[in-house]
Amino acid sequence: MQNQQSLISVSLIIANYNYGRYLEECYESVLNQTFKPDEIIVIDDYSTDNSDEILEKISQNENVRVIKNKENLGIVKNFNKAVSLTNFEHIVFVGADNRIKRDFLEKYILSAEKFPNAAIYYSDIEIFGPRSSNLAKSTG
Description:
Elements: E1 10-16, H1 20-31, E2 39-44, H2 51-58, E3 64-68, H3 75-84, E4 90-95, H4 104-114, H5 132-139
Parallel strand pairs: 1-2, 1-4, 2-3
Helix pairs in contact: 1-2
């Protein structure tokens, strides 16, 4: 699927707070999509870890807007701020401690085209990493 085939425009927002150790991997998963978002915003909620170092690298890409809050807003206000920075009807949030499969946006667009009156589109998650086995045990 190529972006020109769809009338749906997507803003993809990566929300970060002290997830510097995951941020680069998350960002790479966004860049490697089969369907490219029309806009990428990375918003940092006044992190105190190594996030600045990663954000500096990311900001070198002219197709990405990096926003660094001057104070910690908290998750809800940070998400609201991010939404206020875009004019696109379709907004996809990705937490900086997550990554998305290569065809995530492509499948999102197909769903949005098939069900244009839906208010929310969501997907299943796949838990990975060192804490995944603990989570699997605790949730059954």
